[in-house]
Amino acid sequence: MRGHDVKIFFATDIHGSDRCFRKFVNAGKFYGADVLIMGGDITGKMLVPIVQAPGGRYRSHLFGRDREVGEAELPALRKTIADAGFYAYDTTPDEIAEFRERPELVEETFRKHMHGTLAAWMSLAEERLAGTGIMCLLAPGNDDPLFVDDVLGSSDMLVNPDGRLVELPGGFTMISVGYSNPTPWDSPRELPEDRLAERIDREAAKVPDMSKAIFNLHVPPKDTPIDQAMALDAEFRPVLKSGSPVITGVGSQAVRDAMATYQPLLGLHGHIHESRGEAVIGRSRSINPGSEYSEGVLRGALITLSTRKGVRGYQLVAG
């Protein structure tokens, strides 16, 4: 930390991408950041089976097409799957047949892989960041199952900021709420707007000084430049008008009201991958770095805070 400045690297919505998580951990040294913040939706969404086939071959289905590789090519296939945010699972035709008859086994296997990958990531972060003085915070988002809280809370070095006031360097503080307003996908952490507002209010009450407060709220404020996405119908198809997709604000009114009422120094948001940018509500600046995790690209925001001037500046970065 130089003088009275604090440099934060913020990223979010990596959805299980191994490549993006490794880039996140390395971003502290690369950008000279004092604090790393992962804003939520850390875990992946799908198992990708790699099925043994005759003749020493292995078959999988990825990105809409069938793949068949030999044993020498297996590591590269597993890496491609992991970097895209999925969990590679070596299996057999007999086990696949059993999965079809017992769907609960699929869920159990999925949870084990999610748990194991997240635990391995945390060990990697602890190893890479040990002795650097870089603070690392890993927060859950609406797509992260509730059981991951136990994994995120298992480290003496890494911090799960959700539901607590975290003291950052320079006297800044941060609150975090990983829940979202309702979505079409019925994700694990969703609340009606009134209950989401109550949760934010409860966390905001812990803040001693809003002029030095960061609100890490996974969902962006509604009807702003950072919550714009295609409107979907009941079948998850884009709503069209005159042949073009309808773009609308899909963020949270509770979040917008909180930013307007409390006027924290900074809002950190994600959730809407395609809505990268900033929004200004009163004296508060909100940032959404966006997400391109499926391509292995880590989008982030490098933010410099001054103990005297607040947000000195920020830069949207990708790599």
Quick rundown:
The protein is of the alpha/beta class and 319 residues long. The chain is 27% helix and 29% strand. This is Metallophosphoesterase.
How does this structure look, described?
This protein is an alpha/beta fold and 319 residues long. It has 2 domains: 5-42 and 123-318, Purple Acid Phosphatase, chain A, domain 2; 47-110, no CATH class. Helices cover 27% and strands 29% of the residues. The chain has helices spanning 18-31, 74-83, 93-101, 103-129, 148-152, 193-204, 253-262; strands at residues 5-11, 35-38, 47-53, 57-62, 65-70, 87-91, 135-138, 166-167, 173-177, 213-217, 228-230, 240-241, 244-245, 247-249, 266-268, 277-281, 284-288, 299-306, 310-318. The strands form 5 sheets. Strands 8-9-10-15-17-16 form a 6-stranded mixed sheet, with helices on one face. It is globular, with a radius of gyration of 20 Å.
Total strands: 19
* Arithmetic mean pLDDT: 96
Give the name of the CATH architecture of the largest domain: 4-Layer Sandwich
Query: Termini distance?
Result: 23 Å
The H-level CATH homologous superfamily of the largest domain, spelled out, is Metallo-dependent phosphatases
How does the helix and strand content classify structurally? alpha/beta
Number of alpha- plus pi-helical segments: 7
**Order of H and E elements:** EHEEEEHEHHEHEEHEEEEEHEEEEE
Low-confidence stretches: none
| Whole-angstrom Rg | 20 Å
Main sheet makeup: 6 strands, mixed
Shape, principal axes of CA atoms: globular
Report the CATH topology name of the largest domain. Answer: Purple Acid Phosphatase, chain A, domain 2
Number of domains: 2
Q: What is the subunit arrangement here?
A: single chain
InterPro entries: Metallo-depent_PP-like
Protein name: Metallophosphoesterase
